[in-house]
Amino acid sequence: MNDLLHIISEPALNVPASPYQARHFIDGALVDSADGRKSDRRSPSHGVVVSQAALGGVAETEAAIAAARRAFDDGRWSRLSGKDRARVLNKVADLIERNEERLALLETLESGKPISQARGECGGAADLWRYAASLARTSHGDSHNTLGPDILGVVVKEPIGVVSIITPWNFPFWILSQKLPFALAAGCTCVVKPSEMTPSTTAMLAELLAEAGLPAGVCNIVLGHGDPVGSLMTSHPEVDMVSFTGSTAVGKRITATAGQSLKKVALELGGKNPQVIFPDADLETAADAVTFGIYFNVGQCCNSSSRIIVHEDIADAFVDRVVALSRKVAFGNPLHPDTQVGAIVTPEHREKIDGYVRAAQEAGAELCLGGAGLSVPGLGDQFYQPTVIRRVTPDMAIAREEVFGPVLSVLTFGSFDEAIALANDATYGLSAGVWSENVHTCLEFCRRVQAGTVWTNTWMDGFPEMTFGGVKQSGQGREIGSYGFDEFLEVKSMVLRLGRTRVPWVRNT
Ligand code: NAD
Questions:
Q1: Same domain, yes or no, for 220 and 330?
Q2: pLDDT at 4
Q3: CA 142 → CA 187, 362, 491, 494, distances in Å?
Q4: Beta strand 407-413 with 387-390: parallel, antiparallel or unpaired?
Q5: What residues are in contact with ligand 1 under a 6 Å CB criterion?
Q6: Number of domains in the chain
Q7: Ligand 1: which atom is nearest the Cα of residue 251?
Q8: In a domain? residue 121
Q9: What are the phi and psi torsion angles at 390 (to 5°)?
Q10: pLDDT tens profile 41-55
Q11: 193, 86 contact by CB (below 8 A)
């Protein structure tokens, strides 16, 4: 099997000689934990320790929240002009670009993703910071000039306050940049917690924030586990909002905890995203997009198109095409620039992926490619083969749950209504795609599919201007775009009476 795949074992970059030391960033200072505790992160591809991160507890989290609260309340950031906030955010963007290589290397070593994708993620994130900077200057409210000759209504937007930002391991720097610059542009102050598996690029950002001139206490970073750090960031009375990206299970826990103090919660959660392929589609392009959609980030992607729904007349030929392309995708050492698919994040996760594949086979699905772990010479076996499974039925776990691996499930349909029913038969609703040369088919699909984003004749094109988020159990609230920015703002109505025209309520008899 392996000799039929494209496997790259040699590196182009070396693993650094000593691990990166990641520290908390609290009230403008880089600090270790008071008790000195640290956690090691091993590269999923190379098996060696690549970072050591301070492991935060209650003391560090309390200190970070207190610093953010002080910084918000004294107005050192929240009362700055949009122009001044934008100046700092634009400087951060420049520094991100200047440090792209350093960030990308750590992102690759901690996550297992290919260096080319880590470069795109880290360097590309600068554009999110610049777009957020533009919003800091253009944000505005409404005025109502039709309420009567003596009344003017003004609606203003204000920063919501202290925001807890909790991020996952699969796109650590990108997801941080989908949240933090927007919260800062709005005038909020923040406490950030990255995943314990990928803390370093968030910790590196602290250095860049300080260099760009962000005032102390405006952004605080605590490294550590969901409990106690994340849970305290969610329950603490001095926090006004929680912005979370991660699994639906943890998202539900966060909503329940934050609900105790009625904090605002914005959630970006899992997906089981379908691409529907009609017979009149450009099948060559669709097959390439399906291949990209399932193997990008080793399938460990909220937007992974882990199920395709193909018209029954073209299903066999289409699957053959995807299998042929899958054999050409370069799997292997993430430190080589040609590698397209790297390692699975942990051995436990690799087992979980394999469990879905076994269960589907036992339930009658048919393996067309892969279906087992993969050893890369010199790098061990924390990899998974490109896998395509057909004759998947909607009741199977592999068709309903996030596999989060390079595993494509194929379902088939006969009519348009059946395609829509299959696409919408999911607890998730993050994204969906349609492939057809008929504009009517595409438009009707876009209107009827239950998803926060719909791609037609493409997959996973994203822009800071285009808001992102999910329906159903894929989340609540929106991220990026002007709608994502608005999540970090409260709206205040001001009613102004002009002149002494108010009629007294108490009768002066
Ligand atoms: P996860 O839910 O296990 O962890 C996410 C973050 O939450 C981590 O920082 C973790 O330490 C923290 N956490 C864990 N328990 C917590 C608690 N009780 N209170 C507060 N914080 C807690 O998710 P993961 O495995 O890191 O990431 C993968 C998941 O993220 C997938 O489900 C994927 O679909 C989802 N995701 C969604 C999007 C999106 O935009 N919709 C993007 C990327 C990833």
A1: no
A2: 65
A3: 19, 59, 10, 10
A4: parallel
A5: 166-171, 175, 193, 195-196, 225-227, 230-231, 234, 245-247, 250, 253-254, 268-271, 302, 402, 430, 470, 475
A6: 2
A7: 2
A8: yes
A9: -110, 180
A10: 999 999 999 999 999
A11: no
Which parts of 139-265 fold into alpha helices (H)?
Answer: 172-186, 200-212, 231-235, 248-259
- Tell me: cis bond preceding 228? Omega within 30 of 0 counts: yes
**Phi and psi at residue 125, in whole multiples of 5°?**
-65, -20
Q: Which domain holds residue 88?
A: 23-269+474-493
Interacting residues of 348 by C-beta distance below 8 A, sequence separation 6+:
none
Q: Which residue among 195, 234, 301, 353 has the greatest number of ligand 1 atoms within 8 angstroms of its CB, and so is best to mutate? A: 195
Domain co-membership, 204 together with 323: no
Q: What is the DSSP string of 86-130?
A: HHHHHHHHHHHHHTHHHHHHHHHHHH---HHHHHHHHHHHHHHHH
Residues 299, 374 share a domain: yes
Helix (H) or strand (E) holding 137: helix 115-138
- Closest to 243 measured CA to CA, from 218, 268, 222, 226: 268
The answer, yes or no, to whether residue 400 has pLDDT greater than 70, is yes
Residue 11 covered by a domain: no
Q: What is the C-alpha to C-alpha distance for residues 428 and 416, in angstroms, rounded to an integer?
A: 20
Are 195 and 288 within one domain? no
Spell out the alpha helix ranges (H) of 366-434: 397-400, 416-424
Using the mean position of ligand 1's atoms as its centre, give its distance from the Cα of residue 191 in Å: 16
Active site residues: 268
**Long-range contact pairs involving 324-327 (C-beta distance under 8 Å, separation at least 24):** 325/287, 325/288, 325/291, 326/291, 326/295, 326/369, 326/370, 326/386, 326/388, 327/4, 327/5, 327/6, 327/369, 327/386
Same-domain pairing of 370 and 230: no
Is there a single domain that holds both residue 167 and residue 293?
no
The residue whose CB lies within 8 Å of the most ligand 1 atoms, and thus the one to mutate among 58, 107, 113, 170, is 170
Phi-psi region for residue 332, left (φ > 0), alpha (ψ -120 to 50) or beta?
Answer: left
Q: Which tokens belong to 359?
A: 């269960």
Identify the bridge partners of residue 220 per DSSP, sorted by sequence position.
Answer: 191
Q: What is the mean pLDDT of the chain?
A: 97
CA of 149 to the centre of ligand 1 (A): 53
Residue 255: pLDDT above 90? yes
From the CA of 169, how far away is ligand 1's center (Å)?
Answer: 7
Residue 292 has pLDDT above 60, yes or no: yes
The residue whose two tokens read 């309420």 is: 147
Name 4's bridge partners: none
Nearest residue to 161 (alpha-carbon basis) of 81, 90, 71, 93: 71
Residues 188, 293, single domain; the answer is no
Q: How many CB atoms lie within 10 A of CB 427?
A: 12
251 and 284 fall within a common domain = no
Q: What is the pLDDT of residues 427-474, one digit of tens each?
A: 999 999 999 999 999 999 999 999 999 999 999 999 999 999 999 999
Q: Is there a domain that residue 391 lies in?
A: yes
- Pair of tokens at residue 401: 């749950």
Give domain status of residue 8, yes or no: no
